[in-house]
Design a protein that fits this description.
Radius of gyration: 26 Å
Number of helices: 14
Structural class: alpha+beta
CATH class of the largest domain: Alpha Beta
Distance between the termini: 43 Å
Shape: globular
């Protein structure tokens, strides 16, 4: 390892040389308070910026050991430091001048959710921060003077203000750590109280707009109905009260624009912790809950959808079903089966984004089209069995069909954003308006048959031998998906992906699996089990192509990893 003075000497030596000379700077340098790693140098000033990493010891940073004692506190502290670092970096980005991306200093932009990111990782020994710097140039000629300004003036100032406990707003940091521990406590209590979700009183659920996840000002605060009110005793906040949604089948109803989908959206994102001030800090859902919807045109391969679809006119086997272009009902059936396989014990559905013929068949339709002529067993007839025989709860938003009332254990009416428990009223009405008895086929757990092949059409090996890993490139398309090799992986309907960096990580994980694990024999669950173990043991660094993982990745849930693999056509 070299020291900071060696870096200055090298900068002076390459000043005004052609841009590729910057590559000689790659390596590690000891500064007074931290170690600077230049992991990757961009090819020219217009290319993606250079990958930079800094490491500093806990002794130097000075944060209390209680703030990084376990995974929860480490992720929370890392999230807080990333937000602080971004604030500092924004004061200095592009203050060094030049062509292209010269002078850019950037780090991950964190949203309302607290995610584990490659931007900042904390171990029991040190803090590692990753970010990007655009190495300055005039045209394509090195401007080392400007880079020296960034590395020796701007960067140390940012690091000192963001990563030193003595310069931190201690009250805000303590609040962030305590909030995370309180949120974790609620998740633990959900299982103890046989609940699948909790919404605290005074929560703010509406968002500013469709493109902003910040809370809506002057919105109606959430207040739980008395019959569903439960208390949560938290280690820091004390006792709080709110609506507990019990395990079973819960129906959310109400008129249009009264807050049904707003509540469901808050619940589907309740699988993540939220920052203070979000309004949904104490909206907590079972960590493995899965939002489902129909996906017309979805690719499906070797999925056992016979729980919902049987006896097709073309005699196609639905116990191992494949299609390049699924209908809404078929895609939703596959999504549920894949969700069961991923370990989800709570399904979230909105009637608006579900296939109508998959969800329910009314009495008139049953009279017109007999059971023998209808291959689809609607979700209405399976929801009860899913809970009673598989322990899978359902939270469903319904607005058009009254049939769902008959299977609901709990019915919540949203009235001008106020929840009302109408379960007792609904049960009395159901007795007055009984459903026609329809006997669903026997319930059985679906079986997995899915194996990804090693070689995929459209993917080139770039001249490498068959015994060597294929070289695949990833191009991320925001949250909507990514391109792996020549295959597009469409994730637009995976509504619990909240950050582009999660999509990037999914691409990284799938690429690693393609190059190292997929052999034409292992099933998808077997592969994901191996990936999950590596993720738990080494984090996203386990899947890094080079020697170091760059900034720009966030850890996805196992459910999203399954969703990604299930939508890969390779």
């Amino acid at each position: 390892m070299q020291n900071a003075s060696d870096l200055k000497t090298q900068l002076q030596a390459i000043h005004r040389r052609s841009y590729p000379a910057y590559k000689s700077l790659k390596g590690s340098y000891q500064f007074r308070d931290f170690i600077l790693h230049i992991d990757h140098v961009q090819g020219d000033p217009f290319a993606s910026p250079s990958h930079i990493r800094i490491r500093l010891s806990h002794k130097t940073a000075g944060f209390p050991a209680a703030y990084y004692k376990d995974t929860l506190t480490r992720v929370t502290l890392a999230d807080y430091l990333t937000r602080q670092f971004e604030t500092q970096v924004n004061h200095y980005t592009f203050r060094a001048k030049g062509s292209g991306k010269s002078g850019l200093i950037s780090v991950s932009h964190c949203g309302q959710e607290v995610l584990s990111r490659s931007a900042c990782e904390i171990t029991d020994k040190e803090i590692t921060a990753r970010f990007f710097i655009g190495f300055p140039a005039n045209g394509r000629t090195i401007n080392a003077t400007e880079l020296e300004k960034i590395l020796f003036d701007f960067l140390p100032a940012c690091i000192e203000k963001a990563f030193f406990y003595k310069n931190t707003d201690r009250a805000k940091l303590e609040q962030a750590i305590f909030l995370a521990e309180d949120q974790d406590s609620i998740r633990t209590q959900l299982k103890e109280k046989n609940l699948v979700a909790f919404v605290a009183d005074h929560s703010v659920l509406p968002r500013e707009s469709g493109i902003s996840s910040r809370p809506l000002r002057d919105s109606v605060p959430f207040m739980s109905p008395q019959s569903l009110r439960v208390s949560m005793k938290l280690p820091h906040e004390g006792t709080i009260y709110g609506m507990g949604i019990p395990a079973g089948i819960t129906l959310i109803v109400g008129g249009g624009y009264h807050g049904k989908s707003t509540l469901l959206n808050a619940l589907e994102l309740g699988v993540y912790n939220h920052i203070a001030g979000d309004g949904r800090e104490y909206v907590i859902t079972d960590a493995n809950a899965l939002k489902l919807r129909s996906e017309d045109g979805r690719f499906i391969r070797n999925v056992d959808i016979s729980l919902f679809i049987n006896d097709l006119p073309n005699k196609k086997d639905t116990r191992c079903f494949s299609t390049e272009d699924a209908s809404g009902s078929t895609s939703q059936a596959a999504g549920i089966v894949e969700g069961i396989e991923s370990g989800s014990k709570v399904f979230l559905l909105d009637e608006d984004t579900s296939a109508t013929n998959f969800m329910v068949r009314d009495t008139f339709m049953q009279e017109v089209i007999s059971r023998e002529k209808e291959p689809i067993t609607p979700f209405l007839e399976r929801a009860g069995d899913l809970y009673e025989k598989a322990g899978i709860s359902t939270i469903l938003v319904a607005g058009s069909s009254g049939a769902f009332f008959h299977i609901a254990d709990t019915v919540i009416q949203m009235d001008s954003y106020h929840p009302v428990d109408i379960s007792t009223k609904v049960r009395a009405l159901c007795e007055k308006y009984p459903l026609t008895e329809e006997k669903a086929p026997a319930f059985f757990m679906p079986q997995s048959h899915r194996i990804l092949s090693k070689k995929s059409p459209g993917i080139r090996s770039h001249g490498r031998g068959t015994d060597k890993p294929e070289r695949l490139k990833i191009k991320v398309h925001g949250k909507d998906g990514f391109l792996l090799g020549h295959e597009n992986v469409d994730l637009r309907c995976i509504e619990q992906i909240v950050d582009t960096e999660q999509t990037a990580a999914l691409g990284l994980i799938l690429k690693y699996a393609m190059e190292n694990l997929i052999d034409g024999q292992r099933t998808i669950p077997e592969i994901i089990r191996i990936l999950s173990e590596e993720l738990h043991r080494r984090g996203l660094s386990a899947f890094a192509e080079g020697s170091s993982l760059p900034c720009g990745y966030a850890v996805p849930r196992i459910q999203e990893i399954y969703s990604c693999f299930n939508r890969y056509r390779g």
